[in-house]
């Protein structure tokens, strides 16, 4: 129980800190960038430019608020399920952190959609004319790519490392059928009879 509490405590703190960071940066963007000219941080490379995004990350699927308000809770429930079942420590630590980051991004942008009806974006990479994004988008995108690379190309994980996702108890591949207990008792009785007959032959 103590281990579970520590595990959940770390996850909750990371998620809370990430969401607060995302919301704080968006608040600053509204205060200092809304209605203002773009702020050039690195000429020809990076700018801060205010945008009200009514779509998904990087401006795709504009006007799909209802879709996102349906999909996001499903994603969060799936992520929470994996987080609850996933062991703590060792090779799972990095997966915990990456999953926390995905949850941070999903929650951060969902708060905007519920509260404002749009998502505040403000980071613009002018070097490649990349769509304007925010901190929550960074959390989701970087964590998703990192997790995909780790699972697809890394050699740390095997299929059995994810047996915790199975709905079957104790990792058993079969569900006990009715009467299986009787069969086991019969096998035990047969074994006892065999041992007794062996002892009698030895005494003879």
Automatic annotation (TrEMBL):
Cellular component aspect of the GO annotation: plasma membrane
Gene Ontology MF, one: aspartic-type endopeptidase activity
Keywords: Aspartyl protease, Cell membrane, Hydrolase, Membrane, Protease, Transmembrane, Transmembrane helix
Pathway: Protein modification; lipoprotein biosynthesis (signal peptide cleavage)
Membrane topology: Multi-pass membrane protein
Catalytic activity annotation: Release of signal peptides from bacterial membrane prolipoproteins. Hydrolyzes -Xaa-Yaa-Zaa-|-(S,diacylglyceryl)Cys-, in which Xaa is hydrophobic (preferably Leu), and Yaa (Ala or Ser) and Zaa (Gly or Ala) have small, neutral side chains
Highest taxon of source: Bacteria
Region entry Disordered, spans: 170-204
Gene: lspA
Chief place where the protein resides: membrane
Protein name, entry field: Lipoprotein signal peptidase
EC number annotated for this UniProt entry: 3.4.23.36
Subcellular location per the Swiss-Prot or TrEMBL entry: Cell membrane
Short name of any one Pfam family annotated for the protein: Peptidase_A8
Positions of the catalytic residues: 121, 137
Example GO biological process: proteolysis
Stretches that traverse the bilayer: 56-82, 94-111, 131-153
Role noted for this protein: This protein specifically catalyzes the removal of signal peptides from prolipoproteins.
The family this protein is said to belong to: Belongs to the peptidase A8 family.
